[in-house]
Amino acid sequence: MLWVGTAHGVGELTALAHSVGNALRAAGFSLGDRPYQPHLTVGRWRTPRGAHLVQAAVAGTDSGLPVCRLDRVDIMASQLTARGPVYTAIRHVTLGESGAQGGQRRGLR
């Protein structure tokens, strides 16, 4: 798996993850016990074959990734098929719509 972590907004993302996790547990969902690590999954592969090529491509790179603003979360459904997973957006949640402090929009950077 190749993923990108974040150095900014970790506290806000962790609070959001805990809030969502608590709501899911209250609704009867079972969640894992691993600690939350905010990240963006860039890619996955089924076998380690070729993983060394990805490692070589990203080795020594700086964080030359652009800074972006996170202002919406899409809730996705995942259906596994013989050809791979099919993802469908089932809900869009704009961050800061409810519970915004002082009436200000709270986005994450």
Short recap of the structure:
The protein has 109 residues and is an alpha+beta fold. The protein has helices at residues 10-26, 51-58; strands spanning 2-5, 39-43, 72-81, 84-94. The protein folds into 2 domains: 1-65, no CATH class; 69-109, no CATH class.
Structure description:
There is one protein chain. The protein has 109 residues and is α+β, with helices and mostly antiparallel strands. 23% of the residues lie in helices and 28% in strands. The strands form two sheets. Strands 1-2 form a two-stranded antiparallel ribbon. The longest helix is centred in the N-terminal third of the chain and has 17 residues. The C terminus is likely disordered.
Rounded average pLDDT: 78
Dominant shape: globular
Unreliably modeled segments: 99-109
Task: State the share of residues found in helices, binned by percent.
Answer: 10-25%
Q: Order of SSEs, N→C?
A: EHEHEE
Number of strands: 4
**How many strands, what sense, and barrel or not for the largest sheet?**
2 strands, antiparallel
What is the percentage of strand-forming residues?
A: 25-35%
Helix/strand-derived category reads alpha+beta
Strand numbers in spatial order across the main sheet:
1-2
Distance between the termini: 24 Å
> How many helical stretches?
2
How many domains make up the 3D coordinates?
A: 2
Radius of gyration: 17 Å
What structural keywords apply?
109 residues; alpha+beta; 2 domains; two-stranded antiparallel ribbon; 2 helices; globular; disordered C terminus
